[in-house]
C-alpha cells in the first residue's frame, strides 16, 4: 500500500484520491464520495483469481460501477490454474479498454491476455519500481552479523524448522518481525535459541528501524518484507512459499530460494550475493506516461 500510494501521488499529483480496501466491500459512504467520472484503480499482487465462483480475494462493489472502467495496476494471479469462464467474463467486462493495465509478472500478464484483456503491460511489482541499478549497487553482497526473520503462519510448511535452524546457525542475533497476527505464536510452536531472539512489534516502523541498522540481513517467507528490505539497501533472501515470489523471482532475479530447497539456505547465506534486479523499465515508463 505504501508503494502504491507513492506511485499514485507521482502520476496524479493534482487529483482527489479515495482509497478503498479490497478485503471488504466498500460502504455506502465510500461509494457516495466517488465522482461519476472517477476511474477505479485496483492494486493487489494476488488479487486476480482463476475461478471467482470458488474463491475471490476482492470484495467487489456492484459490478456495474466497474464495467469498462477499471484499471489494474501491478496485479497478479492469486494461484496457478486454468481461468474459469466466470473469471474470464468478469475481468474482461470490468477492464478499461482505453488505458494500459499493468501486471506484476509475465505469467499474470499472459493470463490476463487469455481473458481478452489485451492492453496489459508486464511492469513488475509496484514495490520494485524503485529498484534501480543504483539502489541495487548499495546492497551488501556479504553476510551481515544479524538477521531479521519472518514466517507466514497461514503458509506453514514442514520445512520451516530447517529455515529457522539455518538462520539461528548463521547469525549471532535474530530479530523476528511478526507481520501476520498469528506469526509469533507459530514461531513459538517451533524450536529456536531464545537467547539469540528479539521479537519486534507488529508495526512497519519497528521493521524499518531494524532495516536502518548496520550489518543486518533479511531472511524470510514474507515476500514484500524482503522487497522492502532491498529497497532499504538491506541484503535479503526471500523464501518462496507461493506463486507470487516464484514468478517475481523468475522474471526479475529477486534473491530467493524455494521453501523445499531450504537445505541450501546456509550456503546461500554464506555466499557472496550480488543483487541485480531486472525490471521492465520501458514498460513502467510507458504505463506512467499514458496519463
Could you characterize the architecture of this molecule?
It is built from twelve helices and ten strands. It has helices spanning 2-11, 28-33, 85-94, 106-114, 133-137, 160-170, 183-188, 204-211, 223-231, 243-252, 265-270, 281-289, and strands at 41-43, 71-73, 101-103, 120-122, 146-150, 173-176, 197-199, 216-220, 235-240, 256-258.
Q: How many whole angstroms does the radius of gyration measure?
A: 20 Å
Order of helices and strands: HHEEHEHEHEHEHEHEHEHEHH
What is the multimeric organization of the chains shown? single chain
Distance separating the two termini: 21 Å
Judged by helices, strands and strand pairing, the structural class is alpha/beta
- The percentage helix is 25-40%
Helix tally equals: 12
Major sheet details: 6 strands, parallel
User: In one word, what is the shape?
Assistant: globular
Unreliably modeled segments: none
Key terms:
single chain, 291 residues, alpha/beta, six-stranded parallel sheet, two-stranded parallel ribbon, globular
Brief digest:
This protein is of the alpha/beta class. The chain is 34% helix and 13% strand.
Structural topology:
Elements: H1 2-11, H2 28-33, E1 41-43, E2 71-73, H3 85-94, E3 101-103, H4 106-114, E4 120-122, H5 133-137, E5 146-150, H6 160-170, E6 173-176, H7 183-188, E7 197-199, H8 204-211, E8 216-220, H9 223-231, E9 235-240, H10 243-252, E10 256-258, H11 265-270, H12 281-289
Amino acid at each position: 500500500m505504501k508503494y502504491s500510494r507513492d506511485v499514485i501521488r507521482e502520476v496524479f499529483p493534482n487529483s482527489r484520491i479515495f482509497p478503498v480496501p479490497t478485503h471488504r466491500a466498500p460502504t455506502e459512504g465510500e461509494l457516495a464520495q466517488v465522482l461519476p467520472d472517477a476511474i477505479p484503480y485496483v492494486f493487489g499482487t494476488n488479487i486476480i483469481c482463476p475461478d471467482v465462483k470458488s474463491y475471490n480475494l476482492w470484495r467487489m462493489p456492484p459490478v456495474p460501477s466497474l464495467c469498462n472502467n477499471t484499471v489494474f495496476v501491478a496485479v497478479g494471479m492469486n494461484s496457478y490454474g486454468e481461468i474459469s469462464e466466470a473469471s474470464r467474463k468478469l475481468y474482461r467486462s470490468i477492464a478499461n479498454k482505453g488505458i494500459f493495465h499493468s501486471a506484476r509478472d509475465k505469467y499474470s500478464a499472459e493470463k490476463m491476455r487469455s481473458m481478452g484483456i489485451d492492453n496489459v503491460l508486464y511492469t513488475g511489482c509496484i514495490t520494485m519500481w524503485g529498484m534501480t541499478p543504483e539502489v541495487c549497487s548499495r546492497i551488501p553482497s556479504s553476510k551481515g552479523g544479524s538477521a531479521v526473520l519472518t514466517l507466514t503462519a497461514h503458509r506453514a510448511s514442514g520445512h520451516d524448522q530447517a529455515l529457522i535452524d539455518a538462520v539461528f546457525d548463521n547469525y549471532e542475533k535474530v530479530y523476528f518481525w511478526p507481520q501476520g497476527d498469528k506469526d509469533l505464536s507459530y514461531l513459538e510452536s517451533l524450536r529456536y535459541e531464545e537467547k539469540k531472539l528479539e521479537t519486534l512489534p507488529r508495526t512497519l516502523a519497528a521493521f524499518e528501524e531494524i532495516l536502518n541498522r548496520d550489518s543486518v540481513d533479511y531472511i524470510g517467507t514474507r515476500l514484500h518484507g524482503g522487497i522492502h528490505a532491498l529497497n532499504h539497501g538491506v541484503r535479503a533472501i526471500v523464501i518462496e512459499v507461493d506463486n507470487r515470489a516464484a514468478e517475481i523471482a523468475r522474471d526479475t532475479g529477486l534473491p530467493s530460494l524455494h521453501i523445499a530447497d531450504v537445505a541450501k539456505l546456509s550456503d546461500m547465506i554464506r555466499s557472496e550475493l550480488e543483487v541485480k534486479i531486472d525490471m521492465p523499465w520501458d514498460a513502467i515508463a510507458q504505463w506512467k506516461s499514458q496519463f
